[in-house]
């Protein structure tokens, strides 16, 4: 058992040296000190999400757990600062928490009710027509505008996190997961950990955005082809693609 005096000696050590030691021995005392020294990150990032229908303490708890996860995975030999590594991890976990927990708090009741009708309509139309229904099919079945269906579908997608361990959903025999597909190295990402960065970024996207990102940049499909497959307009695909690219740019600038 480590002596109290031995553990106390770590308190005077430089943070980078502590990370080097922790990388070698995974000492719990060192980890506790690193957590204490970086809890300010969890506090700062959690405060960005206050007044959004969730208690600050709940958000702070999520951020703190994400901080611990980042400490365990941080590799100081990569050469970048811990704060740059931890920030996307913490933000990603907070956003995932909101997507998982806050649907009823954030989405208008009208959209919630319409989403339920859309789900029922999809089942009924698929059983009747033996095919996946288009937006037009759903709108006619429910008796509303196509724009309303699209609005409800986008809202629903926004609060359904996509598992990176799930199948990518294409027809190929390799059955790669999203994590596998985004794990390829890209020269534009410089000295960051490419796979970790892309994994965290994909977790901030909704199902529709992931679909468009994969089809455009991994499958090299045109916007018109994607629009046809999704039964939406090419303008909508273009708008969502720009939104994803802008998200990627902002996340990359945080590194």
Automatic annotation (TrEMBL):
This protein's source sits in the domain of life called: Bacteria
Swiss-Prot/TrEMBL GO biological process terms: DNA-templated transcription initiation
Keywords annotated in UniProt? DNA-binding, Sigma factor, Transcription, Transcription regulation
Instruction: Cite the Pfam families for this sequence.
Output: Sigma70_r2, Sigma70_r3, Sigma70_r4
A molecular-function term among this protein's GO annotations:
DNA binding
Q: Which InterPro entries match?
A: RNA_pol_sigma-70_dom (IPR014284), RNA_pol_sigma-B/F/G (IPR014322), RNA_pol_sigma70_r2 (IPR007627), RNA_pol_sigma70_r3 (IPR007624), RNA_pol_sigma70_r4 (IPR007630), RNA_pol_sigma_r2 (IPR013325), RNA_pol_sigma_r3/r4-like (IPR013324)
Q: Which NCBIfam families match?
A: SigBFG, sigma70-ECF
- This chain's protein is named RNA polymerase sigma-70 factor, sigma-B/F/G subfamily
Q: Which organism is it from?
A: Peptacetobacter hiranonis (strain DSM 13275 / JCM 10541 / KCTC 15199 / TO-931) (Clostridium hiranonis)
Could you read off the lineage of the organism from its UniProt record? Bacteria, Bacillati, Bacillota, Clostridia, Peptostreptococcales
């Amino acid at each position: 058992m480590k002596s109290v005096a031995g553990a106390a000696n770590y308190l005077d050590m430089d943070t980078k040296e502590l990370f080097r030691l922790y990388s070698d021995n995974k000492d719990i005392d060192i980890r506790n000190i690193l957590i204490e020294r970086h809890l300010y990150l969890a506090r700062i990032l959690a405060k960005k999400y206050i007044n959004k229908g969730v208690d600050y303490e709940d958000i702070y708890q999520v951020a703190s757990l994400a901080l611990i996860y980042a400490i365990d995975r941080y590799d100081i030999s990569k050469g970048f600062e811990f704060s740059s590594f931890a920030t996307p991890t913490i933000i990603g976990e907070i956003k995932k928490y909101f997507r998982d927990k806050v649907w009823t708090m954030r989405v208008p009741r009208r959209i919630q009710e319409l989403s339920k009708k859309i789900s029922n309509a999809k089942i009924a139309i698929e059983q009747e027509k033996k095919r996946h229904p288009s937006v037009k099919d759903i709108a006619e079945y429910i008796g509303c505008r196509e724009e309303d269906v699209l609005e409800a579908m986008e809202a629903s997608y926004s609060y359904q996190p996509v598992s990176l361990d799930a199948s990518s959903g294409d027809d190929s025999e390799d059955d790669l997961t999203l994590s596998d597909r985004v794990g390829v190295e890209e020269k534009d990402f410089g000295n960051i950990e490419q796979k970790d960065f892309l994994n965290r970024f994909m977790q901030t996207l909704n199902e529709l955005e992931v679909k468009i990102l994969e089809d455009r940049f991994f499958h090299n499909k045109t916007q018109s082809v994607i629009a046809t497959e999704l039964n939406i307009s090419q303008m909508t695909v273009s708008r969502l693609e720009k939104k994803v690219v802008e998200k990627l740019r902002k996340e990359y600038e945080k590194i």
